[in-house]
Structures are given as structure tokens and as C-alpha cells.
């Protein structure tokens, strides 16, 4: 789906954290399976152990990293009646210790191997994953084998974990789209195991005890109900031997009857939700085939066609009738949900837009879809086969989805299914599924409103004893993790500076037959937009949607579809393509980037849409929360406080857009990273051919914000009546930019304080007390600025207690050195996470672009690794004492008004 930049900001205004581009919220369901790289599939090794455990091993040499995923084929649908969150509760408890590792030992091990581990529960599965340097595979297998049958489930542990999981419920129920999803599940699947969201409820958790959890565990957490997936830089034959050694002795178990999902016909209804989003969202939802249905592949192609940029639904955006659209298809095993989504400005009556969307869907139901869009969708689904190998995480999840959800042997089976889809199948499915007599309409209106009643008792107030700062590991773990990995220089890309000033970085990677290009123009809207023209940067970016002077919007999209490629222009531009189509796709991208169409009619439509929506943005709690943070850290005249308003947008002309483009879009501020199945020489020749004629005029603009004075203590409360939970930031400036002499010491200290499950903040605010579900801290750096921030979410009656506990932990970092084990954990976590940071094309490119943007050398990660390796506890203490000011941290709260 295309979401225009101003819409992204509106949707972000509902979030706790400032994040990159965001799409409309997706319905809560497992990701739709995607096909996978032929190279990975060709070398996959599969086996089923005598106890029934299915093992799939997929080598990928992108990075010296391995990811394991244990998939238990039981999720919320298998929960006992009256206890919809049982699977989710057990997921939490799987991190509370087993016979081989206690809770504190498990969190210590996780930290020392890089702190990349988690789990998630869906209606049909519960999935646990670790990622680590590849030589720790034995360690990961031992952990998963032990907790497959030896997890510790006590009432005492559950009593404390319940507080954290109830905070998770409160967090999610503060999100309007989550509340809509819960209501939609009831409407589409009432009376079936899919009726309840996998999250669970506070009321059910209050009734849950260790006996109930043990019963669910013994029923479903058996090797003959599990899939073990191992992906990464491993030898399949040796890995299979290791799996047999760890898992073969676990006996199989007798499984209960699987839940039956046989929903009754859908009764049409309208669900209305009060929302704190900056824009309204409407939805028309249908029940669709499940991932194991014979119609699944045709349903996926139908969804792709309905989301196409050449389709009638998307056309509502350039026509000025919707801020953004998409068709979302989320397939559970036994049934799926398809939903047409569209966004509208706050204060606008959605009736006309709702009528437009209904009319489009009805036309498709009666007349079918264009044949060329079906073929384009099939090409893109099959091309995804190659792209997934470019990320070890994506590769793992695509295999997991194919095995656990679609019930096929590999993603290649999905490719065969997509190839077999016909236009007649897609049209027949559209005629049957898109029936308004079985549709559920949702309208999320940005009106605030009261927070929902979520029921259940408050979380526990008693505290667990604090964990020791020196955790003793069992010999098998201590031996594996005894030494810190000595820093080794990272490989560097080929680097070129083109005649027009473009910095080109090329990294060949041959894990797939694909190439990705990532481009970034250094810019700063706060400094570069003319006064009184705030908003011109976003309007300029919006207009790249409309193609180039040679290919209009539809022709541009059609050309990309023909190549099974993606490309988009702007200050951040990119392409993804099969290797054979690189030059053709690059030519289209360069055409869009260097010769954007900027049509006058499109400009007027986008401008009016931006004016209509910006008032809602300014009033939204999320925007006001983010602005309060900026105000707390910035002087009154700081450029970062410049604000886009309906008035500034109204003053912008098409000439202003064209002038901004000429001034800000410059090759001498541009970095291009090319990664994939290509040589440096070929990449340079292609980029020079496509972008060599691009020139810059005049002096380079300033793009780095100036230094700012130290912030002082302040408080701000942003009322958000629709939320259940407080979201809290504690923040301060750090009086230096990215070249701060103590930056690495602060990073190591932050790893102890607020990064990962073993951190002091997580242990104190969540594990011991259950006051929060998530909490963390971080340092943020730009060229001339720094900031330190702690974040958490809690029930309003726990906000002050959590703040006091957080600040006590900060002060303790200053008053005494961290322990030897804490220092070891932090250093090991940072050093062992280095290969994980480069386990995807996006991760590699993101690191390079960030270094260039900050003016740092590409060898900076090596300097960082050496500094971290040599770091002392005294250096950490001194850095926190010098730069962190707990008494002067600002507090910004977003949450429900006091009752």
C-alpha cells in the first residue's frame, strides 16, 4: 500500500516512538507466507526424528549467523474455554526458566550471545526464536531442547509474570486498531476458536494458574507437535547430527484433538471505534480462505491485485478521495481475513469514501479484475522467492509460514501454486468472497473518547528478590561463553565518488539472484524549508508517486510490474529487482528521481489533502506527545520546533515545490548503496550511466542542526482519553554530538541499564515488580546533538513508582561501578550482535548510510568494537557521572486523564 508522508506522520502520531515510514495498521494475524529463494531451497535438509519432531535446515551464507525457530502447532485457538490467553501466557512463562537454566541464567545467556531472542503467539502457533553467531548453535539447541519438556511452571513465577502480561494487554488495548481487530474477530468468527484475539484478557489471566498452564504445556508442547527450523551459516549434515543428539531422547506425547473452526455465515454489521489517531480509517472486511485452503494461492493473488498501484482502490489516493488505501489479507490456517482499508481526514464525513470503496469492490465482484494485474501479481509473488534470501530473518519466517501455516514442504510449493492460478479462479473467488451481504464495516473516528474498560484485577504489588549481579552459569554455558570475541575488521564495500559528487558503495552478495539499491540525500527539512513554507518538503516527496516526465503514474507502475521490480523516488530512494532486470529498473528509478513529473493537477490534490489533514495531526495526542518531547529538549527558537500548519501549506505553490526540489535534491549530498548479485565494476558503470547527468548548482545547504544548550527538568502531560495505559518518556540532552569522547562508554553502560531482557530496567520494572511490559533506554546521536531517553508504559497508578525506580537505576550507574558480570554481559552483547546487524541487505545498507550521514568513516564499527572490547567499569561509571543528569530529566506522559 502507498501511504503518503503526511499520512505516515498522522499514523505515527498514535505511536509511542518516532519510527520510519508506517503503513495502515494490519489486522492481527500471522504474516502471509511468501515464496523463497531457490538457492536456499535447493540445499535445505529435512528430517523427522523418531519422536515426531520435524527438522528443516536451510543454509544461507549472508553472514556468520544462525537463527533457530521452534514452532509449536498450538496457539490461542487451542486454549481452554474461558481462558483465551493461555497460549500467550505460556509463551511468557517459557522465558521464566527450565531445569537447565533459571530465568536469570537464560536472560544472561541471551545477553551474551547478542540479545536477539523472542517469541510470538498466533491463533494457530506459538513460535520461539533465537539469533546468534553461528558457532553458538549448540547452545541454542540445548536451550530449546530443555524447555521443550522441562520448563518450570510455578504459581509464584506466574503471579509476577501476570503483572507484565496484563501491562501488555493494556498497551495493546490503548491502540484503536487493536480494539477494532478484537471486535472484528467476534463478528467474523463468533462461536469458533478464532473468536478471541491471541492476546488474551486480564479477566482470563486473573483466573489462570500454574496448573492450567502445565496442562496446556503437557498437551501441546511435544516434539511430535513441533517444527525445528534452523537457518544461516551452518553445515546441514553436521547440524542435523547435533539436533539428533539434543532432541532424540525427548519422548513423543499423545496430542489432544485439534480445534475445529467452522464459522457460521457472516452477518453484516458496522463496528465503530473512537480513535486517537490523527486520521480516520475505514475498513470493509470479509472472511477469506485459510492458508491451507485449495483457494489460498488465488486469494493471495486477488489481494495483490486489489492492492496494486494500478488498481481502482489505490486510485482513490491520487484522485484525492483517500489519504491512503490498501487491501490486507491475513490467512490463519483454517480461515482468513481480507480487508479493504482507506484513510480520511479528521472531521470529514467518511460516507462518501465508504461508498467509493464499496462501489469499487462491487464492480470487481461483478466484472472481475484485469488479466494483466493477475499476471503482474503472480510475477511478483514468484520474484519474492529470491528476495527473501537477502535476510536471514526473512528467510526463516518465510519457511516457517510455508511449513506451519500453509502445510507445504517448502516455499517452492507455494510458487507452484501461484503459477497455477488463473484469471478465472481469481474472478470466481472475487465474485464469491466480496459479497456485501457478508461484509463487516469498521469506522475508526479520530475523536478521542474514553478509555475502554478492560476488566481484571491490578497486577501484583509484591516484589521478587532482585537478581544477583553476578549470575553463575552451568558449566556447559559458561564454557561456551567464557571469552569475549576479539574484534576483527569488517569487510568494506567498494567505494567510489562519481564526478557529480555521488558517493557509491557496492557490496557484492550472491545469496540470491537479486540486487537492492538504497539511496539517501542528506537533508534537513527544518533548515531547508523557506520560512512560511513549512510542509513543502513533504509535498515534494508526495509528488514522486506521479511518475516522471516520460512515464506517468500508471505507466511507471506498469513498467515496474513487467519487471517484477519495485522502485520509488524521493530523498530516500530505492529499488529491488532480479539481477537480470537491474539496468532497466535502475533507468526507471533514475528517471523518477531526476525528472519527476510534478503535475499541476496532482499538486493541487495533494496540497488540499495535506491542508485537510494537518489540523487533525496538530490536535492528535501522538503528535502533541512527540512535540512535547522536542520542546523539553530544545530552546524556544530551535529549528526543530518549526511546525507545518494548514496556513503554511496553503501558501505553497507548485513553483515552491520545484524550487525546493532543485535546492535540496543534490548529487553531492547523495549516497547510493548497491548490494547483491553484481560486481562493483558493473554497479559503478550502471549508476554512472543512470545518474551521471545529475548536477548540483550553488553552495551546499546546511543539513545539520546546530548544538543546543542542556535541557532542564520539566513535566508535561498529554491527555489521551482513549488510552488505557500511560506512555512515558524521561529525557535529557547530552551536550555533545556523535563524536562525544565517551560515546562508547555510554553505549556499554546503556546495555547494562536498559537494553535487553537482562538489563536493570527490565529486571526491576518488569521481572521483579510487573509494573511494566516493556521498558528501555537509549542514547541518540546526530552530528551536533545527543539525547538520553528512558521509555516505559504502565497503568497510571504505577507511573510514578516506575519513574522513581528507573531514576534510581540511573543514579546507581553513577554511584558505583557495574559488576564484572554486567560488564561482561554488555560487552559480549554488543560484540556478538555485530554480525546480526549485517544479516540482511537492509541492515548492511542502513549501517553504511547512517555512517555517511553522521560524517563517520566506514571503519567506525571497527573502532567501536575495539573500544567496547577494552572498556572498563570505571570508564562506564565516569561517563554516566559526567553526561547523565537524572535530576534534570524531563518527564512527558501520554495517557488517560485522571479519573
UniProtKB/TrEMBL annotation:
Xref: Pfam families: Peptidase_M16 (PF00675), Peptidase_M16_C (PF05193)
Position of the signal peptide: 1-28
tRNA-binding recorded as keyword: no
Domain Peptidase M16 N-terminal: 55-201
Keyword list, A-Z: Hydrolase, Metalloprotease, Protease, Signal
Peptidase M16 C-terminal domain sequence ranges: 211-380, 651-829
Region of interest called Disordered, as start-end residue ranges on this chain: 445-467
Family membership noted in the UniProt record: Belongs to the peptidase M16 family.
Name this polypeptide is given: Insulinase family protein
